Structure prediction request, 152 residues.
Amino acid sequence: MTAVALQWTLVKRPPLPPIVEQTRVFLLTQTWLLLVGLLIFLLLLEPLSARGPLDDEASNALGVLLGSLILTPTVLALAAKAVRHGWAAGWVLALLAEAAVGFLCYAAADFGLFFGVPTLLVVGLGCWVVVNLLRADTRRFFFGRARTAARA
Prediction:
């Protein structure tokens, strides 16, 4: 191991406040659920294409849904990383990511896909994350004037 790699393994970040850590874990959980959803959707493309060509409206909805399934987990993962570092951009990214999750659920319903419990789980986690983000102690952690070691 090089000296730099050893230094990075020895440096421990201070723990996040419990509500912020919960928000970060929920963001990561949503990321993985949506990646599994993307995999399932890609596996369903073959049976969908066997039914024949899609009309213009359905093909546009399919493109929007596929693009949303690719971009939303990326934004969620970036938000979780920024939240872990305590950056104020993490709060904004998390809020934007939850808006993207809402849009993704709308796009899936518009295309005619609704997976029941997994969709409800993603929506429930999204609502919980938004409530956590709007709490005073979470906003104080991200936007407080005092810089902490967790933000370094």
